[in-house]
């Protein structure tokens, strides 16, 4: 249904343009009559032509001549002419190479030259296609205007006689229409260039190459640059066939990317790769060897459109390509290619309306491709969202595995020894034994609460777990371990689960218990200007300077240790443990929590 709607819309638009097109083409048909003569020798002069009876009548004011390798002469008769008005003779083809017009006057002929071969020496007025102001002394009574032309790109044109008012209106229409269409392509180019660079997607860059060459091609074929006075307008017209080769190369490159031919259409992809090699060779021939040879080689550009048709036909039939934007771009391309070749071979008169309609089709096709690229961005965003969900799920699993790992590292001797202590205390002090059982229960619940996999907990919850552990250790080693809690009363901080308790455990096990006399562990949590300071300090046996750095190196035999906590802090905050120790005087382990990293 979508395809039928697209086809209907394009058909109605094309039909509407054709109605206007044929009205314009036939507007001056009765006012002007034309005849044609082929100069096979290429040496005929105006005198030879005037005396020749070999002229063949043409239908009205249209030459309808396609490519011709020989020079042609045209005899133009103005059937209606108002000498009281300012009149212009216009020839609707901006790609002539060499044209000479002989305008009859009361004395002789006034000669006008134009075409890209003349460049700055052309006699034409700044207009989208060649135009000449009829001189006041023009003799239109029973006199013919003679015109001789040569062009590699076909000599299909319409001759019109327009007054000054019509000439200015037409000029303004060309400026507005051409300016809008050029603006659309320029906007598409820069938007997708920036987007492609930002998201690092080569398809967008290849699309920009396609839009840029399309812009150059239409600049050459519409002749709009002639109005602007652009210095190299004639140069662009002269090398329009080379620009066409470059555009075909851009289309082939873009097609491989947008349709993913390497995986979807491998045989067609092989042909496209051959064309991508062939086009630069042809372009070099055109630029440096022979324009005729290069232009002949440019005929292979039509192969690109054959490949394009095959890709879309197979893609739609196999339901690989379903995007209405890509289908729209393809149908517009088919319409524009058909109309272009009908015009090139002289089957349709070359009116400026047809030229700009082809330009319009190029712009809409480029917009359709742009919309399909927007779908790529949407797909990338959806994929990003899916990956984000997968990442979050994997992160949850990672935290669960991490906590499971930490819990699995708990020393079973600690539980065994604690139970032995409780057993000994029961006979002496049942209340104390009950308190120890309660502490052990809370401690084990904190360690083995697999239902709670929250990434962060409040520091007060973490300190509760520390207190359970400390009371158990103090029961195991009476009058040996003292703990001070230097905590800011209003601190609101969340920390990773099981990050402080292991530090306290290390301080007690490796600092206090190894000394002969009692020792003290101080736990600090302070809010600073730029974050928080967490510290666990002891006055135990201390650490050798050489061993201090080894503590932060991970080893599977070290259990959870400082190295594992350090790795977690780096991942969470980008910070790490700081160890300050002096042998025989104690150890302080600290880390910072930036405020901006708070959940």
Automatic annotation (TrEMBL):
The keyword Transmembrane appears for this protein: yes
Entry's EC annotation: 2.7.13.3
TM region positions: 175-195, 207-227, 239-258, 270-289, 295-313, 325-348, 354-377
The name this protein goes by in its record: histidine kinase
Transferase recorded as keyword: yes
Catalysed reactions, as listed in the record: ATP + protein L-histidine = ADP + protein N-phospho-L-histidine
Record-linked Gene3D superfamilies: 2.60.40.2380, Histidine kinase-like ATPase, C-terminal domain (3.30.565.10)
Keywords assigned by UniProt, alphabetized: ATP-binding, Kinase, Membrane, Nucleotide-binding, Transferase, Transmembrane, Transmembrane helix, Two-component regulatory system
One annotated GO molecular function: kinase activity
Source taxonomy: Bacteria, Bacillati, Bacillota, Bacilli, Bacillales
UniProt organism field: Cohnella boryungensis
Domain Histidine kinase: 499-597
PANTHER family, per the entry: SENSOR HISTIDINE KINASE YPDA
């Amino acid at each position: 249904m979508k395809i039928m709607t697209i086809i209907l819309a394009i058909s109605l638009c094309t039909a509407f343009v054709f109605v206007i097109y044929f009205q314009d083409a036939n507007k001056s048909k009765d006012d002007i009559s034309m005849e044609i003569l082929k100069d096979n020798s290429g040496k005929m002069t105006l005198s030879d032509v005037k005396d020749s009876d070999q002229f063949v009548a043409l239908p009205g004011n249209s030459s309808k001549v396609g490519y011709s390798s020989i020079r042609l002469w045209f005899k133009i008769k103005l059937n209606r002419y108002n000498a009281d008005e300012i009149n212009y003779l216009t020839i609707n083809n901006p790609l002539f190479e060499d044209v000479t017009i002989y305008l009859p006057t009361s004395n002789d002929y006034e000669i006008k030259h134009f075409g890209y071969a003349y460049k700055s020496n052309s006699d034409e007025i700044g207009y989208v296609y060649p135009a000449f102001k009829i001189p006041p002394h023009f003799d239109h009574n029973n006199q013919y205007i003679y015109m001789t032309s040569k062009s590699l790109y076909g000599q299909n044109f319409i001759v019109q006689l327009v007054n000054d008012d019509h000439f200015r209106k037409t000029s303004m229409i060309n400026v507005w229409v051409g300016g809008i269409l050029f603006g659309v392509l320029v906007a598409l180019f820069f938007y997708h260039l920036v987007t492609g660079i930002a998201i690092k997607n080569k398809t967008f860059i290849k699309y920009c190459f396609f839009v840029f060459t399309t812009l150059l091609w239409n600049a050459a074929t519409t002749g709009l640059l002639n109005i602007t006075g652009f210095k190299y307008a004639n140069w662009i017209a002269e090398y329009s066939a080379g620009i066409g080769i470059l555009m075909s190369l851009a289309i082939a490159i873009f097609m491989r990317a947008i349709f993913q031919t390497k995986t979807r259409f491998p045989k067609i992809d092989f042909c496209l790769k051959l064309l991508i090699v062939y086009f630069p060779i042809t372009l070099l021939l055109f630029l440096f060897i022979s324009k005729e040879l290069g232009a002949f080689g440019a005929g292979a550009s039509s192969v690109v459109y054959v490949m394009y048709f095959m890709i879309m036909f197979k893609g739609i039939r196999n339901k690989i390509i379903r995007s209405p934007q890509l289908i729209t771009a393809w149908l517009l391309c088919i319409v524009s290619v058909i109309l272009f070749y009908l015009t090139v071979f002289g089957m349709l008169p070359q009116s400026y309306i047809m030229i700009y309609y082809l330009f319009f089709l190029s712009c809409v096709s480029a917009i359709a491709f742009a919309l399909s690229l927007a779908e790529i961005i949407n797909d990338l965003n959806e994929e990003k969202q899916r990956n984000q969900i997968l990442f979050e799920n994997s992160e949850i699993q990672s935290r669960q595995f991490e906590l499971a790992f930490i819990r699995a590292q708990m020393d079973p001797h600690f539980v065994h020894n604690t139970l032995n202590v409780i057993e000994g205390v029961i006979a002496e002090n049942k209340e104390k034994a009950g308190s120890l059982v309660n502490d052990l229960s809370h401690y084990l619940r904190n360690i083995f609460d697999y239902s709670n996999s929250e990434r962060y907990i409040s520091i007060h919850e973490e300190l509760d777990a520390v207190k359970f552990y400390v009371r158990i250790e103090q029961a195991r080693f009476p009058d040996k371990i003292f703990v001070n809690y230097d905590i800011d009363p209003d601190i609101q901080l969340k920390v990773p689960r099981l990050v402080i308790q292991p530090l306290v455990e290390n301080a007690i096990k490796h600092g206090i218990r190894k000394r002969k006399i009692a020792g003290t562990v101080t736990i600090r949590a302070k809010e600073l200007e730029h974050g928080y300071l967490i510290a666990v300090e002891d006055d135990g046996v201390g650490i050798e300077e050489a061993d201090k750095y080894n503590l932060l190196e991970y080893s599977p035999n070290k259990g959870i240790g400082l190295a594992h906590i350090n790795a977690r802090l780096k991942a969470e905050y980008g910070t790490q443990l700081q160890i300050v120790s002096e042998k025989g005087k104690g150890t302080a382990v600290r880390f910072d929590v930036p405020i901006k990293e708070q959940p």
